[in-house]
Structure formats: structure tokens, C-alpha cells
Amino acid sequence: MLRIYNTLTRRKEKFVPREGKKVGMYVCGPTVYDYPHIGHARTYVAFDIIVRYLRFKDYDVKYVVNITNVDDKIIKRANEAGEEPLKLADRFEKIFFEDMQALGIEKADAYPRVTEHIPEIVALVRKLIENGCAYEIEGDVYYSVEKVGKYGALSRQSLKEMMAGARIEVDERKRYPMDFALWKKAKPGEPSWQSPWGRGRPGWHIECSAMLMKHLGEQFDIHGGAVDLISPHHENEILQSEGATGKKPFVKYWLHTGFLKVEGEKMSKSLGNFITVRELLQKYDSNSFRFLVVSAHYRSPIDFSYGSLEKSKKSLERLLNTAEFVKTFKEGQSNLGNLLKKARKEFEAAMDDDFNTPQALAALFDFSKEVRKLKCGSREVVAQTSDFLKSALNIFGILVREKEIPGEAKRKLTEVAKKFGIRVEGEVIESIVKAREELRKKKDYKTSDEIRAELQKIGILLENEEEKTVWKIISL
RNA sequence: GCCGGGGUGACAGAGCGGUUAUGUGGCGGACUGCAGAUCCGCAUAUGAGGGUUCGACUCCCUCCUCCGGCCCCA
Questions:
Q1: Does domain A316-395 bear CATH number 1.20.120?
Q2: Complex ipTM > 0.90
Q3: Which has the least CB within 10 A, A185, A303, A400, A432?
Q4: Residue A308 neighbours by CB distance under 10 Å
Q5: Would you place residue A296 in the very low, low, confident or very high pLDDT band (cuts 50, 70, 90)?
Q6: Number of helices (H), then strands (E), in chain A
């Protein structure tokens, strides 16, 4: 039984979708005005894992992530760069997709863009005005917060408290200081669209309401985002959506991921600790990063450092080794079947408990340790073990790579074989390993160590196990 | 100030009212020609103070402290 922590109620609840196995899920996507950073990566990896697990549990998930491609920051950045705002957005949207793919994030079912939903947004704003939830002043439209029965369903803050802490000067024309813009009147040179209130563009919050209504309906199951979006973004989404449709609750489960800090500090340009996804992936592969993400609960903050990333890489290595090791099992009787059953159960129980990935990971490590003590199992169970490790890691989006030597390394291998006068039959690597075995039998350790050193330069590590030598590719 | 979430061993990071989390690293041992991998063992902990309890890291209160939100932000 899957249980999920709901920000709305501040407790774990049984997960029951509105309709059978169907799950509508929306996660606030990026504003595309710069390179994605590792904070984005954490959030989208976390939700990627949640979606994968839901699908693993046979839920029929429709996953929607929006793309905000018009907004103040985009316009500002474009003006600085002397670029068309929409072009700049387009450029960074492509980069966003590239980076997400590089992180092994599965495609969402839809990526609605704000610019492609202007009619829906206008219609929604109009409806809110008709409902008396919003009002227009000189081409701007504001949501009227004052009439709302209770504000702060998610953030648990009253309007008064919010205002007390507010650090901005308010627009005098607004009826109430906390009223927020649904439609912004166009300034010269800004991208704008025709509307009943003149040319303008959507406010930040309304786009989400409009797009998710279109793609997921007026009510749906899961809405996610990082914690910083709780207030005011998600708060306002609730007001707009429920204000327009009168249907409650607009969203059944609200999920929020914890923030990623870099060495104890919030990532920011001014601190100079801003790490982009590209930068990260130049130094480490996505598996290592995903392991780091998975080793903390999705709601907990992560304190990123290259040191902890290095540790993640090493830890993961252990699991990958076991996945490889089990393939060498001989046919025979063992306790493997029972261990597997237990591991499956523990893994799933951990994930069912609000996607507790650190605990799920612990189950895998426990399993790994037990498997290591065995040498055999029935062919069927061995295959299942291999599948289990693979699919469990796959839920985390960690790929168990096939052992394949890259083309360039293969060429170099042939050179090594030639250098040591090894006759190649079949796979080059196998021939080298075999030849080296012979050398070792003859106690020619000098030559065999040289061979090992040569291969290591190419990125292949030889390990002498009890009865045979195994080789593996040293990852990034 | 107000709201939310934390403070666990060298580090990362979970669970649980009473029994080893787990991983990385360290130390000792086994295996090994060496390296690596692997196994066994050891050490280091629950921010402070109260309370509830037979018993609290786990529940309650106070304090200290950190992070986040209240303009923008994944």
C-alpha cells in the first residue's frame, strides 16, 4: 500500500487516485532563461523516480511538465543579450531537454508551453473576472485575494502574516496588497498578445492553472514542485483553479521536493557556487548524481559537494559489482530464492512509504552482501536476481550498463595484444585475459602486471577472482 | 517578526518507544604473488535542558542552532 506525504495535510496519506489506476500528475517546469543547474536536476530526477515507481506499481500515469517561456526574467535576460525573448526561451528550452535527457530523465507525456496556451489563459482570466474573483485596472488584471475564505491552505500563513513579512512596495492601484497579477499589460517591446483588456501577457501563476486544466482536467491527483514554490505559486494556483471551477480539491496530493544546497549554501550566481547540469556531467556520469539524489529522501535537503558525489559513485560501484557478479553463478541449490524474495519485499515496502529511497537502497545493499556469500543458484533464480537488481536501479534511473568496450579502446586493445605477442581468437579482451592467465600460472608476474597496467590505461580493470579473472570498465 | 522543515557516529543518511540501519572512509583480520574485488570483526552518535514512561534517538514542552518561505527561484 503506497503512502504519500501530502503538503496539504502535512501527513502521510494512503495513495488513492481519483479514478482507479489512473493518475494525473503535474510538476512545475522550468522558466527557460538560463542553463539548468543541479537544483533543477535534483527536482526533476526526484519526480522522475516517483513517476517510474508509480508506473512500476501499475498506475497509468499521465505526467505533465510545463515550460514557462514568457516571463519577466526571460524578457530581462533577452534585453541584456539583445535577443528576441521568445528566441532566447526557445534556445534554453532545447538546452533544458538535452540536459534532462543526459540525466536519464524519461520524457513527460506533455510539455505545454505558455505561448501555446494564450487562448486558454485568457478564457480562464475572463471566467475569474465574471466570477468576481478578479478585476481589471488599466489593462492589468488582478486576482482578488481578499474575498477568499481562507488563504494559506498550503503554506499555513494568513494574509496578514504574509504582508507583515513582505519586502516589496505594493502597487497602489491594487484593491488589496496581496492581490497578484493574472494578466500584465504589455510594455513596449515586450512579447504580447491581444486580450479583452488590451495587449498583454499572462502572469506567472495563471499559466499553470490554465495548462493543467487543459491537459489533466479541472481536478487531478498529484501536483509537484520544489518547496520554494509552495508559497505563493501553488497557493495561488489553488485560488485560481478553485475560484474558476468551484470544484474542490483542485489537487488531491501536493508533493514538494527539498532544496539542494552547495556546500551548505544556497546556490546563487553571486556566491559563485552555481553548478550547471552540463558542468556536473562533464565530471561525473548521471548514475553517480542519481545515486546521490536517491541516497537522501526527496523531501530532505541535499547538501551537494563533489566529495559526496565521489562517495556516491563508489557506493554505487558496489551494487553494480554485485549485479555483474551474480552472472557468474553456477547452476545449483542455494538460498538465493529466499533472499531475493526478502529483498523485493523490503525494497517495495521502503518505496511504498513515501518513496523512501535511502531505505530502499539499504535493502539493496543488504541483499548484495548476502548474494556475495553465495556462489550458485538455480538458473531461473539467478536470472531473476539479475533482473531485480537491474529493475530496482532502473526505478532510480540508474542504468546498469552492458559490459561493452568502446571502439577506441578496442583498437588499443589490439595494439596491446600485438605488443605482448598474444594471438587473438574471438574477443580480443578474452584472448588477452587468457594469455595473462597462462603467464600467471608460469609465475611471470612481471609481464602479467605490465599487461594489467596497460589495460588500466585504456580504462579496463582486471581483477583476479578465485578461479578466474574478471574485467570491467572503469567508469568516468 | 511570522510560517514550514531540520539538528543522528569522520562524512553521507534512514528507521524505530526497549533488539546491528545502510553506504563511504578509518582500524584490525581473512583471501591474494601484488593490486583490486569480496568476506569477517572493531571504533565513533542521536544539539541543550526539562517532562511523560518500567524504558526515549523515537512522544510533549522550553531553549539554542541551521535551512527554506513571506519579491524572484526547482
A1: yes
A2: yes
A3: A303
A4: 16
A5: very high
A6: 16, 17
